[in-house]
Structure formats: C-alpha cells, structure tokens
Amino acid sequence: MSGRARVKARGIARSSSATEVGRTQASPLPTSVDLSNNEASSSNGFLGTRRISTNDKYGISSGDAGSTSMERGVKNKQDFMDLSICTREKLAHVRDCKTGSSGIPVKLVTNLFNLDFPQDWQLYQYHVTYVPDLASRRLRIALLYSHSELSNKAKAFDGAILFLSQKLEEKVTELSSETQRGETIKMTITLKRELPSSSPVCIQVFNIIFRKILKKLSMYQIGRNFYNPSEPVEIPQHKLSLWPGFAISVSYFESKLLFSADVSYKVLRNETVLEFMTALCQRTGLSCFTQTCEKQLIGLIVLTRYNNRTYSIDDIDWSVKPTHTFQKRDGTKITYVDYYKQQYDITVSDLNQPMLVSLLKRKRNDNSEARLAHLIPELCFLTGLTDRATSDFQLMKAVAEKTRLPPSGRQQRLARLVDNIQRNTNARFELETWGLHFGSQISLTGRVVPSEKILMQDHICQPVSAADWSKDVRTCKILNARSLNTWLILCSDRTEYVAESFLNCLRRVAGSMGFNVDYPKIIKVQENPAAFVRAVQQYVDPDVQLVMCILPSNQKTYYDSIKKYLSSDCPVPSQCVLARTLNKQGMMMSIATKIAMQMTCKLGGELWAVEIPLKSLMVVGIDVCKDALSKDVMVVGCVASVNPGITRWFSRCLLQRTMTDVADCLKVFMTGALNKWYKYNHDLPARIIVYRAGVGDGQLKTLVEYEVPQLLSSVAESSSNTSSRLSVIVVRKKCMPRFFTEMNRTVQNPPLGTVVDSEATRNEWYDFYLISQVACRGTVSPTYYNVIYDDNGLKPDHMQRLTFKLCHLYYNWPGIVSVPAPCQYAHKLTFLVAQSIHKEPSLELANHLFYL
Amino acid sequence: MEENNLQCSSVVDGNFEEVPRETAIQFKPPLYRQRYQFVKNLVDQHEPKKVADLGCGDTSLLRLLKVNPCIELLVGVDINEDKLRWRGDSLAPFMGDFLKPRDLNLTIILYHGSVVERDSRLLGFDLITCIELIEHLDSGDLARFPEVVFGYLSPSMIVISTPNSEFNPLFPSVTLRDSDHKFEWTRMEFQTWALYVANRYDYSVEFTGVGEPPAGAENVGYCTQIGIFQKNGGKATEACVSEQHDQHVYKARKGLTMLPRLVLIFHPQAVLLPHLPKMLRLQVFTTSYPSLQQERFFKLVLVNEVSQQVESLRVSHLPRRKEQDGEWGDEPKDTGGSKAPVPCFGPVFTEVEKAKIENSPKPFCVGDKFFVPLQRLLAYPRLNRLCANEEMMRSVIADSIPLSSDGSAVVTDLCNYFDEQFEF
Q: For the purposes of burial, counting CB atoms within 10 Å of the CB of A347, is it exposed (0-12), middle (13-18) or buried (19 or more)?
C-alpha cells in the first residue's frame, strides 16, 4: 500500500458513514459502504397509522409477513420533514434569485426525469373504518381489496387510510364484505381530503407507486432501494454478492415533480454464521474462541434463509444444541432439527453448533414479556460488511472495481430502467391507472467556475489540473514551516535499516520544501504494541516535538494505542508509518514528500494558500459521527481557521450523547475559536461561514431551530459592539442528482468546478451543487450545499466561488477535495477519535493539524 | 420460533371454523394446519414433481410446499384473484434462495379462474390437491368437477378434503361451517360420491381424515374427511398428454399474461357480466427459483464452496502465531471452567470420507503461495456432491479463482490482510 493509499484507506475508506456502494465512486477508492444493513429498523404505515401496522418489524421485504411497500414510509417521512423547513424565504438577498453568474456555461444531463400528469390531477384521501373493528391489518386490506367496488381502481391502502386517484361517487361509501368465517363486516369509506399534486402526501403516494412499479419489474426492495438478484456480481474470494439496483425517489425540485434514479449496489454476504464461526475457531484456537466469537458476532444483523427475516444477534447460547427441544406456541415440544425439517424441509447438518439468541420485539403494543428466538447459525446469513471488512484495502478495492461505473455505463443503466418501466405492461398499467406519464430525461445548464491559483511561498502557481498539483509545486517552497529539532523515531530491529534510509530521503525532500529536519533519536523496540507504548512513555519528554513510529504491521492496536496516548495522555504530535510502505521500491521519494508535508502540518506549519477576497473571514467546519466502540456517543469535530489567509486552524473534538448536546458543544467550540482569532488578529472576524457536515435525514429542523441560534449567541456574546456576521451551510456528500456532460455522443463527468444552481435544486432552499472532485474511472458525485442561514449577504456567485476555493485547502492532499477543507479536517479528526482514541484529544494540540 | 407465521396467515385464510367463539372444541395444532401438514406428509412420502392446489386461497399450502426439494412445478388456482395477487409476492424466492440455491428448479404459477374448466396447462401432474374445495361448488360445478379433474386432468394422485357434517353437532349452533358452503357431507355421502368417481375414472381411493373427535364422541369420525385417490396403472403416458395440448382455456401470450386487469377492462363480456366469466383462467403470478440446475447459480455455489475450503486449508497451514504473553491487558482471555464446554466445529466426516481426504493430494506451499490440488478439493463431500470430476471443476471456476499454471490446483497467497488483523 502506498502512503497515499494507506492514508486513504485509513482516513476515508473506513468511513463510518453508511451508504450503499456504487453511489460514491468519485474518489479512487470507494468512500463508504453500507455497513449497517439496517433493514431491522421498524416499518410502519404512512401518516402515523402506527397502531395497526406494527406487523413484522424484522421484515426485509414482503416475505412471509406480507408487509407492503407502503410500510416503508419512515425514512421518507424524514426527508419530507426536511422539505417542510423553508429557509430561503427568510433570506432576503436570495428570495428572488439564488443563481450565480460567473464561469462558462456547460450543458448537463441529469439522472432526473419528468413525471407528467394532467393539470387538474388530484388525489383523494379516504379513511376506512370497520364494524366490527378488525385488529388484523392484513384482513382489513384483504377485505377492502377484494371488494368489487374498488377492484378496478388505482389504490393505495395501509389498513386505515385509502388513496384513490378517482373520486368515489359518494362522500361516504358503505360497503360490506363477508369473511370466510361468515362474519359480515361493514366498511365505511369516508372522504377526508382532496390533495393537489404538490401536496407532500401526494409525493409520498408517488413514491409508493414507484416502489410498486419496481417490484413489478421483479426487483427486490431492500431498505429504500431496489435490487435485481438475477444479475449478481460475485466476489468469491471475499464471499460477497453484489446485487445491482437503483435508489429511486419522486420529489419536487425547483419547479416540478421529478423522478430520480441512481445506480446502487447491495452488498450481501455468501457466508453463514456457522461458516464464519468455523473459520474463526480455526484461527483463534479453542482457548479464547467463545469470547472472541461473541465479540465479533453480537450486535450483527443476520438474515434467516428460510423465512427471509432479519434478526439482530443479542447473545450466543453455547449450552443449547440443535438436538435440544423447545416448546412451540401450541405447547408441544420438538427438537430444533425436527422443527426445521418439518417446517422448512431443511436438514441441519452440524449438530454441535450453539444457538444464536435474538430478542424479538413484541408484535402490537401489548405488555407481555419480550420473547427470545433461538436461531441456528447454519441457517443465518451474515449481512452488511463488518468494520474489519471495510478496513480491508483489498476487499474494498475488489468491491470498488466491480461497482464502479463510468458516466456512460450509468446512463445506460438508467436508460434500461426507464425502458423497462415503459415496456413492462404491468408497470405501465400501474402508472396509467394513476394518470401518470413517464417523461423525458432532464437536461440543464451549469457553470464551470474559474480555476484557482495556488499560492506558495515565493511562487504563484496555476496548476495544470486542480485534481493534483503535486507536480506543479514540486520545486516550490511551502508557505511556512517550523524547524524540527528534537524528535524520536521508534522502530523494531527488523525495520531499523529501512527507517535509516527513509530518514535520509525525508530530510532531503523536507529541505527542498523549506522544512528543516534535524537528525532524530532512534529508539529500537520489540515488535508488539505494548513495547511501542512503553517506549513512548519512557522517551517522550516536554522537549520532544514529534514522535515517528515505524509500525511492523497494520494491526490496529499499534496505531490506536500510540495515538491514544500521544493525543490525550501526553499530547505530542505523532506520525505513524507502516514499515511495509517504506519497503516499496521506487516510491520512497513520493512517500517521503507526503510524510514531510504531514509532519509540517502537525508541527503547525502551512503548506499553500488560495486567494481569499474577503479580508476578515473565519471559516468553520463541523462534522459528527458515531464512536466505533460505544454507538450512543457522538463524536463532534470542529475546525476553524484562525488567520485571514485561511492557512492556520484551531481544531477541537468533543464527545456528546444527543443532538441538542451537539449544539451546546458547538457553542463551547465557537467561543474558543473566536478567542483564538482575537488572540492572533487582535480583533474578531467580520464574517464567519460555518460548513456543517454529518447531517442526517430529518435533522434540518434541529439545525435551524437549535444549532444556528446557539452559534449566533456564541458569536454575539464574544463581542460587546458589532458582532461577526454568520452564515451556516449544510454540506452533503450524498445526494440523489448526478450530472453528466455530453461529448461526442457519449456522456462524461463534468469538469471540476461545475456548479448547478437551477432545476435540480429545491425552491424552498438556497442551495447549489458543486463538483470539486475527480473520478478517474467512476462517476463523480456532486457535493450538495444548502445555505440555511446567511447574515453575510454574499451574492450567490461569491458564496459558490468561496466554497470552491475552500476545497483547495486540505493539506493532506495536493489537489482539490470533495468538500471544503474545514469539513474535511473535521471529518478526519472525528474519524481518528471515533476509531482510535475514543476520548477528547488534549487542547494543547488544538493549534496543530495533529490528526492528519 | 417461527411457527407463528402460519398462525398469522390463518387470519386471512379465514379458517376460523376450528376456533368457534364459544369454543367447545379446539384442535392442536389448528385444523387447517393439520390438513396442510397432512398434504405435506403425503408429498414427502410420494415425492411428486408437479403439484397443483385447486382452490388455493391465500396460497398458504403452496408456501408450505415450496420448501420441498422434490417439487419442480407448483401451481395454485383460485377464483378470488385479488387475494391471489396480493399473496403472490410471498411465493417469490427469498434473498437466501439466491445465496443458497435449491438443487432443482422450481417454478410457481398462480392462475385465476374456476377449477372446473379444462386447462391443458394442468395436464400431467403428479398430485392435485383440493383442500376444503368441493363444498364451495354449486351443484352444476360439482357435477362437472369429476369429469374435469379426474377425467381430463387425470393426475397420478388426487387429495380431496371436505367437512364431515357428522362432526357438526359438537360445535355450538353451527349448521354449515362457512356461509359459502353449499353443502356439508356425512362420511357416507362423501364416500359414496368418492367411490363412484374413483370407479368411473379408474382410480382407487382410501379414506382418512384429520381432527380427532373428542373422547366419548369417537363415532362421529374426523372433523375433516379426506379421500386419497390414486390412479390405477400409474401415470398418464406422455403421448396422451401431448395430444391434448391445445386446450388452453386462456392462451397465455407473452406480455399479456401478466395483465389480467387490463384484459378484464377491454373484455366486453367481463364488463357486462356481474360475475367473473368462467372461461377466463389467467396466469396472475409466476416465479422461478434459482437452482443448481442453472449454470450461473451452480457456478456461484461451486466457486463459493471452493473458496471456503481453500481458505480453511490455508488458515490451517499458517505458521502458528506466538501466544501473547498477556501483558496486553485488554486481550480477551478465556476465564476457563465456568463457560459451557468449548464447542467443536467444522464438518464431521465419516471414516470413509476421512480416508478419501487423507488419500488425496495434499495442499502445499511454494514461496509465499499456497496451492490446493483440485483432486484434494474433490475429496471433500460438499464439493464432491456438486462436482464429479476435476475437468468440470476447472472449467467452472477457472475465470473466478486463480489456478496454478497447469490448472491442477487452486493458488492463493499464503498470508493475507486478515491474518495480521487477528490478535488474540
């Protein structure tokens, strides 16, 4: 692994943000993968009809439990919640126009499609009651659906609320049906609302319709996406199956209702829990097998192959075997082996396996005790990727290679999906009965904003490509470096030689960069993590500026324990390098350059700058993620620039338990950052722009109502007279739209610096898309910016260009990155804390980019 | 555990008769499940390839039968189309069916239509079940029923169940068990009808039932009476079947088969008639299961099994890491004793299998590469079951798994990323 690859693997590929692969393929490595496989989340009916729809909390798809597509409204509901937060109307300067002007116009094709329907299209919402009342949602649906009165109408029904596209003759319709038991049930269908197509409820129903349609195309719904199991991509060496599919949604964009579809892959594992256990047992030996096994398995979600449900493993019962008996609901006793044979014709082959224990959530809201289910490991498939799997560079590379699609491939898949929808009579019929028509693919005009110059110490450089300017600045001196005089290298006997030759190389390249590196003290240690930490404890004193550790293996304990000690217990910047990285033939120079740059930053140096037209501007990046060990802890990383040139940073990371606590700790951070700014600049910044990443669906409201006021109050409190003006921008790397440029009859990724601020944006928001990353082989994903608060009143054009400039300032990569540098720093910091340190780093390090 | 699935389905199923409100008699397991289990046992015993369930209702029985490895074609027919479509989804293959495919192909088809129509697509079946069906037929349909099912479809075996009206007095105030029942027969009535039909169409019939009467009322017989009809002289000959092939009640044209509603709308008769016209029998749902008979899935399974076996052999060849000396405090340590006995894992081989494995070529290392001869892999029962010879294995896995230059062994790196990650 090259230095860059290692850093990428460590910093990005193991990203904790969970999403499907294939949707974020812009960087050379996939930036994230679906870890969570969170189908176990509850599914409920739409519009708060929870009482009757708590059927099958574990259902992945319809399966045995027959959950309908309508139950999957929860996550969508969160999106709709976000859409109801209209922030633009409060921002006077963009109320009429939020588009920029500079740059060269570029024609773009999108993955959005028109959805046409008659002007007077309406949806009719009815409420259905049953006399006598029926508890079973399934029976309610069956009775209504089988009634001749409704059989030819387009309908969506969740057991209580019925949507029709045609109005019934009467406002109240009385129907009666007979159950097979002979009981007569009266159904009263009462018109509640007539909804115009722009209503959020309609959009939910449109989404339901499209989910139905994709099911008709024989696709499987997993979570919110649809996958085609008949064309899997296999990665046998990693026991993975990738199902190709689509993420789809229908929503209102700037002026009209659009259908959007993006290619997505679902990662499934061809591995049963028993196979996993067997392999684990082989590796660990028996002595500590049970504990390791529990550590590895508890908390995972498994899929049972006989009934298509998912369960979480809550415990492992080593004392129960498949040959033991259990009591069925009807009171009879049966062995597990016989049960599976009788019920599912499955022969359990391993009679010695223990049982997985899963705590079943209660059906309905009764108060009886939660039940435990015993599951047979042999019949349970693992789902999702473990943290360990996502940290495996080879595995992630294999997944990326299989899932990466160039724009043309993506466009082909989209065309095929649209074609299928239009050709499949069933799907078309569904659309037609609802009065909908599938329209054309949307094209729009974006702009490519001017490229940026890179300012070095004595040179202004116009890079050939903003993607990577390492060659352009090779001979230039960096802006500012502190001399490294007292430092340590820790290495083992085996790596001493390679450490020496690396050191020579490092000093040479650092010198040419303008970074003076003196000869360090080299300490030889034994090859185990404890020895490394002991050596650090023993040799690090207050004079030591930096500790470099040449790690004998990429075993996580080395890295974690060293980082933990040197970030909080004894705050000294540290640099870990894998011995294997240094053994790479012919790579030494580039690795040394990269490491020299990181070391400069860790000592508080500055590498390069871009021109910032605003005189007194502080930019802030905030990211939030979950701690890897304790999932209920949120790691909040905040990074603020402390000089007008935006080359020096103040970084803090705090651990919190709830979203409101997050807002509170932002206040603590802002106060600290403004104090720092004051200390260095003897004044407060005139403007502050906060880039907030790590915002989940449905959190926009909390941001607007809680975080923004907290930020404002911390700004107001720090100054007695005029306070700084504040803007808050939500940054999302994951968004539905994709943009392609058409060139020579094929589609390609749009150029760097492409801005889209019309049609694919939302009318109620001050938002835009910016493409600030390169995708060599895949399709680039645009970054989405939503300005939710803006006192600064910058022109949209300036806001867009400033954002683009900030994407050039991430010192870990001599090129442009996908998000503004403060966000990327905050991300890197939260990642280090969430994965390795698990506590707040010492404030003494706050002035250095110690986490690079 | 999972037995509640079927209980849930009983709600829609409407099999309520066995749980009357003032419960005098309760069956355990519920009567409808006893009936389904009865059919399932019959299937286990006779291993039919093609099975049809007439009057399949919400397809509960089909869902129970689809797990049976011997069945390759499973058909359901019912007059209530909405219910069929609504439940159809649950017959589609599960995700796990793609990950661990069946051995044999399985196709499931649901037709919407009357059971008393001749339909050549139901010819040549091994088993046709009519569970609680005949009592729903009016006299005209009942008269046509034997001629269609026994005479025309003429499967090797037919199972017919119907309520035994002699049992009814044991229920509180029940005349007919379901308002849609046109009649309920005594044992004598059913047996007379059955024997007449069997005799006429050259079947032999046995009578049995499910739902034991309570103590003291043994003379009323089973709550549900069942007749098992077996065709004399075995299966209908293939020639006989092909002769009759043209009698599709509804020609299933490609593309139109999945569109019953549209057809109904444009069918003038359908719009005019208050009841569904009987001559329509539409295919409303069809699904086929992945299986090892399909090349793609066979390859998937074989490649997976090979990878797994190679990985397992590789790990056992790794040089043993030194035991940590415990100075790393947070390492998991078995506290010993207190836990349940340490489980033993992995496949258990018979002596013959063991000998076969021992006698096959051994895995070996060259440098940092690890080789497993294909002959060795073939010695393992799980792989041997899939693949008979080396040539076949090589051709299937060649483009998925790296092989040695002469193609006789699988080759892999001896050490990989995960080995370092394990710290115990």
A: exposed
Residues 338-377 of A with CB under 8 A from B: 339, 342-346, 349-350, 352-354, 373-374
Identify the residue with better confidence: B176 or A372: A372
- B53 and B198 inside one domain: yes
Q: With beta carbons under 8 A apart, name residues in chain B contacting A285.
A: 424
pLDDT at A7: 37
Query: What local confidence, expressed as pLDDT, does residue A147 receive?
Result: 78
Q: Is A181 left (phi over 0), alpha (psi -120 to 50) or beta?
A: alpha
User: Sheet of B409-413: strands edge to edge?
Assistant: B364-366, B369-373, B409-413
Whole-angstrom distance, CA of residue A190 vs CA of residue A126: 5
Query: ipTM strictly over 0.85?
Result: no
User: Where do the domains of chain A lie?
Assistant: 122-196, 219-403, 481-603
The CATH number covering residue B416 comes to: 1.10.10
CATH architecture, domain defined by A219-403: Beta Complex (2.170)
CA dihedral defined by B263, B267, B269, B275, rounded to 10 degrees? 20
Question: Does residue B334 form part of some domain?
Answer: no
How far is residue B207's CA from residue A538's CA, in Å, rounded to a whole number? 89
Do B122 and B217 lie in one domain? The reply is yes
pLDDT beyond 80 at B226: yes
Q: Output the CA angle B315-B318-B320, nearest 5 degrees.
A: 115
**Averaged pLDDT for residues B62-72:** 90
How many domains would you assign to chain B?
2
* Topology, domain A481-603: Rossmann fold (3.40.50)
Closest Cβ opposite residue B300 in set A234, A374, A555: A234
From the list A237, A290, A429, the residue facing B259 with the nearest CB is A429
B376-385 contacts at long range (C-beta below 8 A, 24 or more positions apart) = B376/B313, B377/B306, B377/B309, B377/B310, B377/B410, B379/B353, B380/B309, B380/B347, B381/B347, B381/B349, B381/B353, B382/B305, B382/B309, B382/B347, B383/B302, B383/B305, B383/B306, B383/B309
Buried b / exposed e across A667-702, counting CB within 10 Å, b at 16+?
Answer: bebbebbbebbeeeeeebbbbbbbbbbbbebbbbeb
Comparing A219-403 with A481-603, is the CATH topology the same?
Answer: no
Same domain, B309 and B226: no
Asked whether residue B48 is assigned to any structural domain, the reply reads yes
* Average pLDDT taken over every residue of chain B: 75
pTM comes to 0.76
Q: How far apart are CA A733 and CA A840, in angstroms?
A: 26
CATH code of domain A122-196 = 3.30.70
Query: CA–CA distance from A364 to each of A136, A137, A201, A665, A785 (Å)?
Result: 10, 11, 26, 39, 41
Q: Would B36 be classed as within a structural domain?
A: yes
- A518: buried, middle or exposed (CB in 10 Å: 19+, 13-18, 0-12)? exposed
CA B214, CA B59: separation in Å to the nearest integer?
Answer: 30
Q: What CA–CA distance (Å, rounded) separates B321 from B319?
A: 6
Residue B178 has pLDDT above 80, yes or no: no
Domain CATH code at residue B125: 3.40.50.150
Of B90, B311, B315, the CB nearest to A63: B90
For residue B10, being part of any structural domain is answered with no
Nearest CA in chain B to A231: B296
Strand partners, A221: A226
pLDDT for the residue numbered A796: 95
Q: Which residue has the higher pLDDT, B389 or A75?
A: B389
- The fraction of chain B above a pLDDT of 70, given in percent, is 71
Provide the residue range defining the domain that includes B149.
31-231
Q: Is the same domain home to B72 and B211?
A: yes
pLDDT bin (cut points 50, 70, 90) of residue B24 is low
| pLDDT value at residue B208 | 94
Q: Enumerate the residues of chain B whose CB falls inside 8 A of the CB of residue A291.
A: 332-334
